[in-house]
């Protein structure tokens, strides 16, 4: 007789439910849906708004780049390479409805600043599997990982302190207004040292020189699928970085936002090797589920936890209980693994398409990284390329890019662009051919 494993049947029901074919009723079983639920794809989630134009900007570099990217996403016809807009899971609407249906009254009330215990336990479980010796009591659920960065920076940095970042690095950590490093720099007069990225990650020799000479108060690092270069550091690099931090007693802020999108097995986070409570770890569900939920988290061990938690309370009391419940329900559904598998397969395809388009249309003097996952790749351009002018000209042809200068702490660096490949094949082909023509025009004029 034919034997079917019970887990296979459960998974089959999960798939049917995810596709909107059946719905689960607690205590009663599964029921066939009379109306099939439309899947939430990228276009329906970000429905095009009519007659929207990208408003004139005049804020900080990050403000302008971020708002232009968000506006562009809602405009039909714009090819938006500037920000990464990951596809939300197609069953998120179902999960969200289920989370609200099962909601206890407490879901609609004020919550603890650290966030819901169920969600913290679920996240702790995932992190323990990656080698971290932590519990739910070391977690703070934040409003995206941007808030985690902001809280950690504010906690560690005092007036006049030196802070080490990779160069280039995530612009949201170095150039954003009110609550992150730039504002802290402005208000508290902290100073940034950018350590150049090599193919292996931050140049550790140079790091040691600065640790010795400047005694910085924090090292900010993106260990996996570094934004913007896409580089993932090896376990040896991570351990060496931690040893240097220990030797010079300098805390590390580890940002692991893209870890879930890596095509290959990733080494354990630096936090997994941290025995001296030197590492504050931030991560997010923005890339793996959806950014609109604004759910991220930080792992803080030792004496720093209570102080950062008090700051979280002062910022916004707590992260939205409804968003937390949706993430928690999604984790409980067991669908995340399948969603990530599908997302990575799609991203790999898009990345390869972009690599082909770059080969075909970009000048041979341009160099680009081949990231092992994530949403972006990084293109290094020849010295004389005016990237800002090209950005403006590209926009007049409905193509939006992120200029490399925003990612360098000293705003200098070399001419470069960060390109998101989270787009359709047609958009990639057309957009890269437009950019290629512009680059050649300036390079060979
Ligand atoms: N860290 C990195 C490296 C990022 O790229 C981003 C967003 N692009 C963030 C943190 C912040 O993301 P969120 O607040 O949505 O979690």
UniProtKB/TrEMBL annotation:
InterPro entries: Aminotransferase_I/II_large, HTH_trans_reg/aminotransferase, PyrdxlP-dep_Trfase, PyrdxlP-dep_Trfase_major, PyrdxlP-dep_Trfase_small, Tscrpt_reg_HTH_GntR, WH-like_DNA-bd_sf, WH_DNA-bd_sf. Gene3D superfamilies: Aspartate Aminotransferase, domain 1, Type I PLP-dependent aspartate aminotransferase-like (Major domain), Winged helix-like DNA-binding domain superfamily/Winged helix DNA-binding domain. CDD domains: AAT_like, WHTH_GntR. Residues 1-35 form the HTH gntR-type domain. PROSITE patterns: HTH_GNTR (PS50949). Keywords: Aminotransferase, DNA-binding, Pyridoxal phosphate, Transcription, Transcription regulation, Transferase. This is PLP-dependent aminotransferase family protein. It comes from Brasilonema bromeliae SPC951.
């Amino acid at each position: 007789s034919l034997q079917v494993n019970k887990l296979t049947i459960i998974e089959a029901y999960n798939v049917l439910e995810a596709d909107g074919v059946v719905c689960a009723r607690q205590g009663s079983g599964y029921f066939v849906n009379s109306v099939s639920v439309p899947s939430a794809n990228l276009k329906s989630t970000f429905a095009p708004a009519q007659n929207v134009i990208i408003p004139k900007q005049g804020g900080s570099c990050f403000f302008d780049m971020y708002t232009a990217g968000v506006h562009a996403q809602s405009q039909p016809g714009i090819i938006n390479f500037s920000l990464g807009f990951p596809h939300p899971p197609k069953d998120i609407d179902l999960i969200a409805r289920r989370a609200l249906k099962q909601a206890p009254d407490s879901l609609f009330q004020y919550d603890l600043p650290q966030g819901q215990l169920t969600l913290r336990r679920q996240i702790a479980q995932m992190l323990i599997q990656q080698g971290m010796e932590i519990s739910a009591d070391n977690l703070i659920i934040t409003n995206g990982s941007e808030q985690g960065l902001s809280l950690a920076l504010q906690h560690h940095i005092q007036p006049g302190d030196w802070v080490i970042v990779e160069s280039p690095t995530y612009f949201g950590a170095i150039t954003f207004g009110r609550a992150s490093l730039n504002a802290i720099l402005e208000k508290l007069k902290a100073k940034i040292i950018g350590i150049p990225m090599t193919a292996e990650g931050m140049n550790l020799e140079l790091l040691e020189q600065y640790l010795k000479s400047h005694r910085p108060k924090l090292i900010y690092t993106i260990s996996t699928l570094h934004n913007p270069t896409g580089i993932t550091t090896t376990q040896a690099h991570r351990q060496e970085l931690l040893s240097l931090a220990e030797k010079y007693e300098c805390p590390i802020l580890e940002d692991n936002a893209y870890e879930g999108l890596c095509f290959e097995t990733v080494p354990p986070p630096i936090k997994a090797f941290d025995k001296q409570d030197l590492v504050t770890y931030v991560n997010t569900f923005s890339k793996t589920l959806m950014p609109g939920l604004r759910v991220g988290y930080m792992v803080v061990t030792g004496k720093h936890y209570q102080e950062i938690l008090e700051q979280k309370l002062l910022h916004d009391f707590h992260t939205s209980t409804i968003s937390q419940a949706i993430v928690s329900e999604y984790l409980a559904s067991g669908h995340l693994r399948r969603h990530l598998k599908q997302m990575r397969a799609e991203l790999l395809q898009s990345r390869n398409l972009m690599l082909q388009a770059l080969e075909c249309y970009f000048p041979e003097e341009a160099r680009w990284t081949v990231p092992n996952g994530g949403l972006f790749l990084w293109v290094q351009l020849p010295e004389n390329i005016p990237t800002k002018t090209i950005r403006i000209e590209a926009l007049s042809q409905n193509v939006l890019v992120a200029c490399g200068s925003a990612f360098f702490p000293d705003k200098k660096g070399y001419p470069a662009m960060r390109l998101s490949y989270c787009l359709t094949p047609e958009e990639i082909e057309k957009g890269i051919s437009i950019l290629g023509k512009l680059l050649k025009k300036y390079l060979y004029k």
